[in-house]
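Q: Hi! Curious about what Signal peptide peptidase SppA looks like structurally. Here's the sequence.
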Amino acid sequence: MKQFFKFVLATIVGVVLSFFVLILVFALVLGGIIASAGGEKSTMVDNNSILYISIQKAIEERTPDNPLEGLEFLGLGGDKSIGLKDILANIKKAKTDDKIKGIFLDESYMQSGQATTEEIRNGLIDFKKSGKFVVAYSEIYTKGFYYLASVADKIYLNPKGMLEFDGFSSDVTFYKGALDKLGIEAQVIKVGTYKSAVEPYILTKMSDANRLQVNSYINSLYNHYLNGISVSRKINKDSLYKYADDLYIREPEDALKYKLVDGLKYKDEIIAELKKRTGTSAKNDLHTVDVVDYTNAPVGDKDDVSSNRIAMVYASGEIAGGEGNDNSIGSETLSKALRKVRLDEKVKAVVLRINSPGGSSLASDVIWREVLLTRKVKPVIVSMGDVAASGGYYIACAADSIYAQPNTVTGSIGIFAILPNMQKLLNDKLGITFDNVKTGKYADMGSVDRPLTADERAILQAQVNRGYFDFTKAVADGRHKTREYIDSIGQGRVWTGEQAIKIGLVDRLGSINNAVKSAAKMAKLKDYRVVDYPDQKSVLKSLSSSFSAKIREDMVKEELGEHYGVYKQIKGLTQMMRVPQARMFYNVEIR
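A: Let's find out. The predicted structure is below.
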């Protein structure tokens, strides 16, 4: 028996040691991969090359700092991402690069918001001023990619492919029925007739006010979409409207007949044409450089030696308290960044790049305060992305000037709070009951196991009203309007950039570059360089946090199966009950 325990103990020790050795080996291998992948390698561009743009991942504001992308290591790699900043910079760089003869757009699904697409589209229009060509090809043209491709010199569609041209629609998913079945009541306290973020939890269809605003802004977006295609393709806008309304484009041949495309070709025919355009022999391979890799291509003299700086401060994602990350706005992180650029004497002006549907009203106010303080010291220009609504607009309104794209979604000036009442779920469905002892009448206000009393609802409504007053006053002060006027265009109503400029919520329609030029002009700068803030999270920190989050998410998905979607909505509902929200649900999916 003694010998047996020796063997067991030795086995356990061996297993433990092997485990730690494997951990060590894994860490060393991972470190080596990161070290080898993390170094910036120059991309050499051959003469007579084509800049190849085929983006398979959602386009964020900045390229993620993840050297493991593309390595297919433990499921963490895959296709490389590229941010809007680098896409625009690479298109601009290719314009003057003698080795680049043109651009090839090869896509089927454009994973970007409309204002992001607008930025890239305008970059391509500017690129064409060089006299170089832009050719587009797809097997399936979605509405978003077709809008981008419409500026190309030649647009080709696969002979068996498809071009979506049937108008815009916006779908809203409602969860009230599911919550009723679960025994959960969403108790809503809000200000704003049009504040529709709460509707999915309390209604089964759009309210009349929400339907009015959605109809208004979706038609504004559609009108801009058709205008852009009309100009690029030289087709009357009314004709385009009729093509879509009566579904003229049903087969590839229809797209050619009505001049939405220039030809029906297979990929090999496109490659053959590109070879002719670049003077490449039919026997040789076509020289291409991927837009992702082109970021590291050597360029001529850089104009970034100036000591004068314009700070580009990125505010992307939902707004919450704390640190946040590259895809969410933490009030603490963004406040630190704004304080840093405010105190840095080398920074002469600030461009605040906002792409956010809002979030916590408290966190939004904290950031607004820092924008206001920064504006007192140096110029602050806002550049709006796909969406800068609710809390996203709150943090914008203190700036000197606001730029938006015509198809930016903005406004939504309103406040709401949601407190779930789970009494029926807990008592009737799960058989769980509660009892308590409290020292004050309101000590358990907000408890999820019972409905709000009339007094509690009145108290919360007063808090939300105060939040709305502060919001509208901040906008009124920043926009030099009366609070009464802001209230009249507020009430949670959503506007496009094209509409917002007419009512004074936006100053100018323009790109990120326009905002930078405006900041330089206000700061009276002739030479400057643009520096990004806040710093992106380190690779290892991002990896560890995303890896652990992915493990947790996979475990919950496996446990809940098809009910995972409902779980996420309920989780979001319970998270929103903590603080009043200045948020819109940006699910304007153009289909």
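A: A fun detail: The two ends are 73 Å apart (CA to CA).
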